[in-house]
Amino acid sequence: MASRKGAFIKKAIISSLFIAFFAAVLIWISVMSRSFSNQGGDLTKKQGFDSSELPVHNADSYVNKLIAESENYRMYLTGSNLSITVENKHTGAVIRSAIEQDSSGANKQWLGFISSGLVLNVIDGYNEAVQADLINNKNIINIEETDNGFSADVVFPDLGFAFQVSVRLENDDIVVEIPDASIKETIDKFRIGAINVFPMLGSTYLGEKKGYMFIPDGNGALIRLNDKEGRLSGGYSQLIYGDDIGFKDQSTPSLLKNAFQTVNDAEKILAPVFGMVHTDDKIGFLGIIESGAQRASIEAYPNGVKIAYNRIFPKFLFRKVFKQPTSNRNTGVVDDYEEQRTHYDIKVRYRLVSGDNADYVGLAVAFRNYLLDNHIVEKLDYEYNTRIDFIGVEREEWLLSTKNVTMTTVENIREIYNDLDEAGITDILSIYKGWQKGGVNRVPITRYKADKNIGGTDELTSLIKAINEKGRKMYLYHDVLRINPDEFNTTFNVVKRIDKRLYQEPTYMDVYENMLYLIPKRTEYYLNRLKKDYRKAGIYDLALAGITNSLFTYSYGGKEYSRTDTYNAYNSILANIGDEFSLLLEQPYMYLWKYTDAFLDMPVGTSQYNFTDEDVPFLAIALKGIMPLYSEYMNFEANKQEFFLQLIEMGIYPSFLITWEDSSNLIYTNSADIYSSKYSTYRDDIIEYTKALKEVNDAVKGAFIIDHERLGGVTVVTYDNGTKIYVNYSKTEQVVDGYTIEPLGYKVGE
What per-residue confidence (pLDDT) applies to 605? Predict the structure, then answer.
């Protein structure tokens, strides 16, 4: 009986504890539910900011107040929307960062955008299309004046965001900064997706002003400020330093197994710059992103695209919403977003230009001065060379495997050099591709071992030393990013996208259909191994590709790595190898320019967007005279005469891709797109181009471009040593400055 009574009491106690626990759970759920429902409301509660954390709102006391002054400019602040007005003290010309009074009939959302100095893109749940601005959203702004500008604490209490922004006038520069450490997000429901900085700085309404926006597409392009009359539906929106493959959707396979790529990729942004010029008022600016470029985009929209204003600005990305597959077979996806934001400080420098400098040449010269003054590049002492690259070995399918296709041996290269020597052509720089065992696409290169079909390692070493003894250089080509999954074990050390799926780069070729990317640590590992081999062989000239113009977010080992991580890793890798080796970098991004002895594959044109009005040689003007600039391969230019004239105009040196054997031998390889490369076909072009371009180079050696004018069909390029280059693109004879320029010809004058 006592035993049964004890059991009953025990059950009662357990039941009571269970009921108490269940009640506590219900109370917790109720509290959390109320807390979640209030997340869009008063943030003075615990889920947001304490009232003690909120700054005093004093922005309304700053209404078009003079806040800073330099020798040439005054800067005024309107605090309620953090907008500035910059005035040239000598001419009275002004540039504003916001539209104070809109007459275009913009809706409420667009009115907030055009009237705010800063605009945020907010991720609300999984919706990243939410806007937060300083007009439509409740905000608290506390402004403190500084010696040459102001600092403002900004809070969006209903969203749980806070950050600090500083704006200062440094001589002829406006500098805007948002420190990463100042950014706070205090409500789980809301996340900062992006911050748009001064999205309307220099903006104009329809065709009320003459001038243009400068975008860093290819070598450079202009979008004029004339009334577009509603003809355009889109504008320019490109990520600086190229697309992010970490977010590239590869879930939809091509209907055709071996479909060729039918649309060319857009030109990448190689330098984090943009600009606006009002040519009628002779005022403008060059925007330079000094911090945060690794995950920022340039946004440029002509009037008629959504609103009636021309505007250009940087957009700094912190998070993205992406599709997360729910199974290994990609049968379903769910929305997800990056839990951790990318960490970096935002810093934009707006270099103001006025008077005769208020044009695209003035912007390019301002950029060149910026690069040199800040030691981002150093002026090199260099000579003219024609670039001649060789292909050694490729692979084609053969029975159950692949076999070598030998295109240019070491002995062939000796013959080519000897032949050009006899023709008086000694100014040559070369890069040898596909020299390694297995040829061009056997990547990564893990040791210094030349393919026996080109002559073997000893023969290659002997050739390189012989070339060096004559004062020339041959660089060995390395793609240090890619790994061939058909040639190497790719279970480990390869890049996965943010959704944890393996990234595969399609080649659109038959032999090797896809390439994978190495994680930065593996790239560093292979280069460190190679350094030992090269030192032993006495080889110190390398041409690097892959990491020179790729930047991405990725996941590996259960951890996510941002573009900032990749950016820092590649910087470190090149700093390490650049201490010992002479490097050529293939179409490098600006943050790596300090490591290269020349700029390979300088774009001559642009992406030819329908909203651009004129191509301009911005990068060529900025870099000519600092380092040698080499074009993309002449072989594949449809109009070789026009391309040659463009090289004369821009001061770019020619590049040829050469093989000893006929290119038809490549038809069943991954180099099938090389349809013309045989040396005997290009011998005369190499000789002619070298003689002509060397003559031009001798006239402008070491000089900088200071002016660039288009006078009808003739372009006149002026150097700071007094030399002028006249390029006639027309089919008729032209006379300029007393010089007669033949049709489709050029003239070197003074």
Answer: 93
